[in-house]
């Protein structure tokens, strides 16, 4: 050992984080910024994105907030240009934006199914295509896709979510194969049960009723019992794995899935 320095493991990196105003996305933004990355916090709820970016700036980091509906391919191109202009070529993309409607197969409407696929899958595809040219200019990149237990063992509830998250495995491998020659890696990270508004609240992109929310002790305990390590995950548990996957410590990891689920997927 020659010296001990502060880690700053993402110094000089520029990250676009979709769903960056949400629970897991904002934890990624904060942790990445702490490690030295400049962050574009992208969300269709601009006020949440602005709040996250301001916090980072107030703590001495670099960040911008942009309004982005990931379903809009042309909006993606604008976000990439703005990020390059203000922060530099993009080296990390986190595709977090997601939606779910927790209803059984025959109850899920066509619109609900399409929305889940549009936000989670098409949005990630558009994002990857928009960002890769910038990563090539930077000479390297890491694309991190959000998976789920539904990418491992999708059950009967919400066919759209099952299809979207399983498809994310294919999208990850396809991108990993396609862009390895450009020194761009692609990894899918699958959380278990994370205590966030996605499964607790009643947002437009992820509505919950008493039947589904983890405010309901029955639902909370079912998820807890299914988690061998004995607690639900925090947004930081997931963000730390994204951070690891973004660093050179993960330089030989591509096309793989990292699970962060307390053993729930076993
Ligand atoms: N919470 C969990 O238990 C859990 C488990 C596994 C996977 N996930 C996945 O994690 C991701 C983030 O979830 P979270 O728990 O942080 O929830 P969250 O609701 O806090 O965050 C989701 C964010 O995505 C944004 N978003 C929704 N639609 C969008 C769109 N069209 N364009 C841009 N942004 C959009 C929302 O505004 C929100 O900020 C989702 O993909 C979800 O499927 C969550």
The CATH architecture: 3-Layer(aba) Sandwich
Give the spatial strand order of the biggest sheet: 3-2-1-4-5-6-7
Q: Identify the bound ligands.
A: nicotinamide-adenine-dinucleotide
The rounded Rg comes to 18 Å
Overall 3D form: globular
| Percentage of residues assigned to helices | 40-55%
Assembly state? single chain
The arrangement of helices and strands along the chain is EHEHEHEHEHEHHHE
Structural class label: alpha/beta
Average predicted confidence as pLDDT:
97
Beta percentage is: 5-15%
Major sheet:
7 strands, parallel
Distance between the termini: 38 Å
Question: Care to give the gist of this entry?
Answer:
This protein has 266 residues and is of the alpha/beta class.
Secondary structure layout plus pairing:
Blueprint (H helix, E strand, L loop, with lengths): L13 E5 L4 H12 L3 E6 L2 H13 L4 E5 L5 H15 L4 E4 L14 H29 L2 E6 L12 H21 L4 E8 L5 H4 L16 H9 L9 H12 L10 E4 L6
Parallel strand pairs: 1-2, 1-4, 2-3, 4-5, 5-6, 6-7
Helix pairs in contact: 1-2, 1-8, 3-4, 4-5
Notes on the structure:
A seven-stranded parallel sheet has the order 3-2-1-4-5-6-7, sandwiched between helices. Helix 2 (46-58) links the parallel strand 2 (38-43) and strand 3. It has one domain (14-197, 235-260): Rossmann fold (3-Layer(aba) Sandwich). The protein has helices at residues 23-34, 46-58, 73-87, 110-138, 159-179, 197-200, 217-225, 235-246; strands at residues 14-18, 38-43, 63-67, 92-95, 141-146, 184-191, 257-260. It is 43% helix and 14% strand. By secondary structure, it is α/β, with parallel strands linked by helices. The mean pLDDT is 97. The chain contains eight helices and seven strands. Helix 1 packs across helix 8 and helix 4 (110-138) runs parallel beside helix 5 (159-179). Bound molecules: nicotinamide-adenine-dinucleotide. Nicotinamide-adenine-dinucleotide (NAD) is lined by residues 18-19, 21-25, 43-45, 48, 68-71, 96-99, 119-120, 146, 148, 191, 193-194, 196-199, 203, 205-206.
